[in-house]
DNA sequence: TCGAGTGTCTGACATTTGTCATGCCCGGCG
DNA sequence: CGCCGGGCATGACAAATGTCAGACACTCGA
């Protein structure tokens, strides 16, 4: 095929972004048309250059890769999104797929493999790293109800119950109840351990 | 100068390591003689190839960059160490300098700049990213006493006071006292926030 | 329609945590 | 020597947290 794939590269680590751009440029059928160091910048660049494929880091300042992907989905339906992540957590994978992301891989893949994957998603196919997929499946669905998750999130930064109650417009007893319920469901020792677990599994 | 600098590259993210190797090879006076994806592997590679400069990621499986640097210091005194980090925290910087590391920079630097820094540390000079240095200085020394730090560390994973008391062979009241003291000194809301703060500043 | 099951919400009670006043020991200093 | 000052350690008390039983609304099948 003689078609050229136009790629947007977004990663806050200049070292990686530059190196990656150089390596991908070695592929005849790939051309990096834009680079970005943050979520909002990635969006702006995408609007300006309308790339075929956007390669997004999961962790970026401003808005993370999934949020950017969500916006791109509506603004540029023709642009396929491939997310790369340093230390992937299952929950993000689920969010990412829900946002219409076509590919999700850890940064442990080789540049050669990444180039292949860019072609894969450009062709309209999906690819998810098998290990990350296995993690996501073993983590399963969140056992938390909507309120439980909401309250747990508010408790994330160690705020006292009174503050959580005020922000959620609930009685303190109710907040304690939800926290207790969430802690039990997650099999955690206390609310803080529960927050950690929920974070790891992408349930908050 | 016609001398060639022999470089060891260690990073668990294959994508970055490969890309970096390619970019650094473009420099005439730099040659990547070995790559590693983990702490122990980095040590083994260093022993086998005796590089002039070791470029180590801070976060790696097995042993982190600082631990590797400590070992290298005694085994290969002629090998200078340059640490790169994704999201640098002041405490690590202090540990790194104590371990004899010559350079410490975030991954937001460009490859060009990294090449310069490899030459800098090879020449025996030091370089620390100004922003990271400022963070470390503003963080200052730990105000915690030995016992306070010990108890705070035991409290890190959300264990209840009774368990901490048992593991530290202290009365529960004493444990509460140290935690309270640590929380006050750190200006935190509660023990968990204190753990976070101490972690960020490298005090535990 | 009506009963079972589930989610939401609350207050009362037991447990855990945070704070305070206090005593002990040790090293430095007048 | 005698007397601080600081770190270590403790128990008592107040405040926050975790646990429990139960009320209400809503959905889904029988």
From TrEMBL, chains A, B:
Domain of life assignment: Bacteria
UniProt-recorded name of the protein: Response regulator transcription factor
Modified residues (4-aspartylphosphate): 57
One GO MF term: DNA binding
Domain Response regulatory: 6-122
Domain HTH luxR-type: start-end pairs: 137-202
PANTHER family, alphabetized: TRANSCRIPTIONAL REGULATORY PROTEIN DESR, TWO-COMPONENT RESPONSE REGULATOR
Keyword Flavoprotein: no
Source species taxonomy: Bacteria, Bacillati, Actinomycetota, Actinomycetes, Kitasatosporales
Pfam families: GerE, Response_reg
Gene3D superfamilies documented for this protein: 3.40.50.2300, Winged helix-like DNA-binding domain superfamily/Winged helix DNA-binding domain
SMART domains noted in UniProt: HTH_LUXR (SM00421), REC (SM00448)
Cross-referenced CDD domains: LuxR_C_like, REC_DesR-like
Key words of the record: DNA-binding, Phosphoprotein
GO BP annotation list: phosphorelay signal transduction system; regulation of DNA-templated transcription
């Amino acid at each position: 095929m003689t078609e050229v794939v136009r790629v947007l590269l977004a990663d806050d680590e200049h070292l990686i972004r530059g190196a990656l751009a150089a390596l991908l440029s070695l592929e005849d059928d790939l051309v990096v048309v834009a680079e970005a160091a943050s979520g909002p910048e990635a969006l702006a660049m995408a609007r300006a250059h309308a790339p075929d494929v956007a390669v997004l880091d999961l962790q970026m300042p401003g808005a993370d890769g999934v949020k950017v992907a969500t916006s791109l989905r509506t603004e540029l339906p023709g642009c396929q999104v491939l997310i790369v992540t340093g230390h992937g957590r299952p929950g993000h994978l689920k969010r990412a797929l829900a946002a219409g992301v076509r590919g999700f891989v850890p940064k442990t893949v080789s540049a050669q493999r990444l180039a292949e994957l860019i072609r894969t998603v450009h062709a309209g196919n999906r690819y998810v790293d098998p290990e990350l997929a296995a993690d996501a499946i073993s983590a399963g669905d969140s056992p938390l109800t909507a309120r439980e998750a909401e309250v747990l999130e508010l408790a994330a930064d160690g705020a006292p119950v009174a503050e959580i109650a005020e922000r959620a417009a609930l009685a303190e007893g109710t907040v304690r109840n939800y926290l207790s319920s969430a802690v039990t469901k997650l099999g955690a020792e206390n609310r803080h351990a529960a927050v950690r677990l929920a974070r790891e599994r992408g349930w908050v």
